[in-house]
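User: Can you fold this complex?
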Amino acid sequence: MEDFFLPLAFFIFGTIIGSFLNVLIYRLPRDKSPLKPAFSFCPSCGSQVKWYDNIPVISYIVLKGKCRNCGSSIGIRYPLVELLTGVASVLAYLKTGLSIDYIFVFGFLAVMIAITFIDLEFRIIPDVLNLAGFLMGAVYTFFREDFTLLDGIIGAVVGAGLLWGIAYLYLKFRGIEGLGMGDVKMMAFVGMYLGWFGALFTIFVGSLLGAVVGVAAVYLSRSEEKGRFEIPFGPFLAFASVIYLFFGEQIKNWYLGGMY
Ligand SMILES: [Zn+2]
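Assistant: Here's the predicted assembly.
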């Protein structure tokens, strides 16, 4: 029974954190305090959401996606983020087991979820998220056996430095800002967790995915929209970094093994 109940407990815990991530996703880009007011409110009518209407995923289903007070629709993003964070919590538990590592691995995933949804909607990555992730990664190095604080610092410098260089060249030769400083700071956070090799992997795979989706988006768009496409880079970096977080050892061994 433990095989079932423990992952379920981690899933439920994840959805509760996901509910808090929804608050951050709404408030951080609007420069509102993430902690005050402590209760959630309907963005349409401003009414306070009762505790029984604020149960992750379940309340959305019970309310059929509508505010109980004014009936305006609640975005699908809310249950989606809660479910995703629940799954992330279970995956983190399956990777780390019941250990201190869970907190840091799940923390990484939670910050990436918040970054992804904010960047998708607002094309920004709040500094506070990058800073929180960076500091979490730095503290984590003291609990890791095969990864020191120096490894993290080198990773942060390589990741942020390379992306800053790309942004600089892009601006110099194309005269437009293709990458924001938010992406550069995000790579410092990623490098602190994943080291220099993981940072390079994240930039390479993230760029590749972004290019494929970017070309597809331009191709599929109506002609008057062409050339005006702006695709946020953060979600692609987040996706690539999560792949490396889970499969980094295999990727590194496979890649370095192939060189001999
Ligand atoms: Zn309402």
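Residues 124-260 form one domain. The chain has two domains: 1-98, 124-260.
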